[in-house]
Structures are given as structure tokens and as C-alpha cells.
Design goal:
alpha/beta, Rossmann fold, 9 strands
Length: 242
């Protein structure tokens, strides 16, 4: 199923966001999946973009674990400060998700620019958990709104597009706001998550499952969140995480 935004645009902003969804027959939880992008670009985003395509198997995998999964295609490929276009698109998608599943608990999963977007919109009262994969983080990105949420960040140690040190510093600040914060290091993996893709996917699946079912919290993630800073913020992701 796809849902097209009714948002109106000005003359140079003519595209609309789009949602691709995987909806189990019954679901009491939902995950909004947010792909990456660029710092600045008014080029219309497409489902053919690699940043979108790399999130398709992840969204499908999430839905197979039980929750509804919605994958957002933004209007534009860029963050476009000060407009922050993906933030507006993601908030629109959250509103549509709440309309369709008013009782569902919601988690956010984002990669790169999508990770930054997920962290930014986690102030929505329906959001209980946020997972940021290889997130693009800038100094001063806010954390105070993360209180009461479970937060997981993960970064490849050979990422050349976004800075693992920035996600570590962000996790340090987030940990002061919500104790349920952890960060994993994916050794020998870069920004596109191609190497050790199954481990990235397994980590997301474990996090989402535990976010919605307290009896299914994964011990690896629970131990990382329980650890004091800095010990729970540079946890090595074991090979074979499924």
C-alpha cells in the first residue's frame, strides 16, 4: 500500500512525500523507517534512490517480526537547513500513522540523515523508542526531548560519510537525559551497512522487539543500556547478531 501526501507546495517545491507500508493482519505497534539523504538538495527524492532502497529490506524485516512498518520517501533528497524538509515530512508521516493506528506504540528507525530526522522528531508523544543507524549528527543537535524514550545508536567504525565520534558525543549527552540510551560499534562496516548487513538488521529487529514487549528485551541491548557512560556507548556488536 502507498499513501501520497496531500501537502501543497510552492512553485519550486512541487513534489510530495510518499509512504510504502507493510501491514500485518493485526498489529499493536508501528515503526516509521526513515532513509538517508544529502545535506542540501531540492532534487525530488525517488524510491529508486539507493538511500531508499537500502531501507526496503530492513522495513520488510521489521514487519515480519510483527509491527506495521512504514517507509517514508521524502519530497526532497536534502535536509536543507533551515527548512529541514525531512523533519516536516516525517512529522506528516507520524500524523498519518497515528490516524491509521491510533492505539499503536511507535518506534522510529533511521539511517544517516534519516537517523538525524528520527532523533529530531522523537519528541512526538506517541514515540517510545528511536534507533539511529550511522546517523548524521551536528554539534548542538538537541537531546532534551528524548526523556522517557529508549534510544539506540549504531555506527560502523570505518564510516567515511558520517562521523562515529559525533554519534558518540551525542549518545553521551542523550544518556544524561534518558538512562535507556546505548550505542553500538559495528566493526569493519561502513556507512552503507553493506558489510555485516545481517548484523545491522538483527540489531534493529532485537531493539524493536524489546521496545514493544518488555518480556522480549534483548540481553545484549539491556546490558548496554544498564551500563554507565562511557561503557554502554561503545559496545562492540558481535558478529552473528541475528
Amino acid at each position: 500500500m502507498t499513501v501520497v501526501s496531500p501537502l501543497r507546495s510552492d512553485s519550486h517545491r512541487s513534489t510530495q512525500p510518499l509512504i510504502t507500508s507493510w501491514e500485518p493482519a493485526t498489529a499493536t505497534a508501528a515503526v516509521l523507517v526513515l532513509p538517508g539523504g544529502r545535506a542540501r538538495s531540492l532534487e525530488p527524492a525517488s524510491r529508486a534512490n539507493l538511500s531508499f532502497q537500502r531501507m526496503v529490506p530492513l522495513a520488510r524485516d521489521i514487519s515480519r517480526a510483527g509491527p506495521t512498518a512504514w517507509l517514508l520517501r521524502y519530497r526532497y533528497r536534502g535536509w536543507n537547513e533551515p527548512d529541514r524538509d525531512p523533519v516536516h515530512d516525517a512529522r506528516w508521516a507520524l500524523a498519518r500513522l497515528r490516524e491509521r493506528h491510533p492505539e499503536a506504540r511507535i518506534a522510529l528507525v533511521g539511517h544517516s540523515m534519516g537517523g538525524r530526522t528520527a532523533l529530531r522528531i522523537a519528541d512526538d508523544p506517541a514515540v517510545t523508542a528511536v534507533c539511529a543507524l550511522a546517523p548524521w549528527i551536528e554539534p548542538g543537535d538537541p537531546v532534551d526531548h528524548l526523556g522517557g524514550r529508549a534510544v539506540l545508536l549504531a555506527h560502523g567504525d570505518v564510516d567515511r560519510w558520517t562521523d562515529p565520534r559525533a554519534s558518540y558525543r551525542y549518545a553521551e549527552r542523550a544518556k544524561q537525559v534518558t538512562a535507556s540510551t546505548c550505542r553500538f560499534v559495528v566493526h569493519d562496516s561502513g556507512h552503507a551497512m553493506l558489510r555485516r548487513h545481517a548484523d545491522w538488521s538483527g540489531l534493529v529487529r532485537r531493539f524493536v522487539r524489546g521496545a514493544f514487549d518488555p518480556t522480549a528485551v534483548d540481553p545484549l541491548i539491556a546490558d548496554a543500556m544498564a551500563a554507565t557512560s562511557p561503557h554502554g556507548l561503545s559496545v562492540t556488536l558481535p558478529r552473528g547478531t541475528r
